[in-house]
Amino acid sequence: NILIIGACGQIGTELTVALRDRYGKDAVIASDIREGNEELMQAGPFEILDATDSAAIEKIVEKHQITDVYLMAAMLSAVAEKHPLKAWDLNMNSLLHVLNLARDKKIEKVFWPSSIAVFGPTTPKDHTPQRTIMEPTTVYGISKQAGERWCEYYFNKYGVDVRSIRYPGLISYKTLPGGGTTDYAVDIYHKALTDGQYTSFLDQGTYLPMMYMDDAIHATISIMDADREAVKIRSSYNLSGMSFAPEDMEVSIQKHIPDFKLDYNPDFRQDIADTWPNSVDDSAAQEDWGWSSKIALDEMTEIMLTNLKSYYKKESL
Ligand code: VAH
């Protein structure tokens, strides 16, 4: 069976639904430090679990005969800057607990998310290569870089089948934005519908690698489905979807809401975004396990506004 740790997070929420559709709802145990939304709680087994508690993880693995663990629990970049050591503890120790279960053959396979946050200000910014200079200057990025090193170490030393993807900024409508620097790209759609206006905390011209959630979920399932030998990179794979700046979103949204207005008030998150790439090269993922992204900005805008519109209509009823 499959255990998702951090099932209530931005990726975890949609990954749980996708994996239950694919493997059956009773084969996918969702867990998090708090309860999730109705869809998540109704649709299959759920456990309250603190990702830093190794004994609790082991107990759930035994109770539910878990073979595959998707460790999605982490503190994201903006929040991690406010609680550095708590972020390190959660992001690092949760990974080591799960890797040790795999080392001890208590589970067979691990998925762990890395991020384009592993790159820093000295990394080449355009079409950032799979292997390049990585001097992350954020707590979150440091924890992701260290995590990648641990994944590769456990694969080389103990043969642990751990697989990882460097997600770009992810956009989805099923969860509210939570603590990420890229979350302006989620917030903007909500505010376009509720206020017709949005003040972005990232400035004009801030290009970042971004992706619609469905593409990210497809990539996650593809890499976990791939033959063991196909997954040649055991640190983490670059993954590319789109690269855009806030003004590109304004143009895209105005195709649906003509008088939508965007203005700018950069805050501390601008300093984080400035250390990250504008775009990444994901040819390794394309070659090794057949990855390709599908959804572009205007299609994403259509999906986001359509789904959020019905959400806000229900809310206002
Ligand atoms: C964040 N959404 O902003 C996450 C992600 C690349 C960004 O890691 O922290």
TrEMBL record:
**Which parts of the chain are coiled coil?**
none
According to its UniProt entry, the protein's GO biological process terms are: L-threonine catabolic process
Domain named NAD-dependent epimerase/dehydratase is located at: 2-232
Question: Per the UniProt record, which residue ranges are transmembrane?
Answer: none
One Pfam family in the UniProt entry: Epimerase
One example GO MF annotation:
L-threonine 3-dehydrogenase activity
Family as reported in the entry's similarity comment: Belongs to the NAD(P)-dependent epimerase/dehydratase family.
- UniProt-recorded name of the protein: Nucleoside-diphosphate-sugar epimerase
Species, as recorded: Zhouia amylolytica AD3
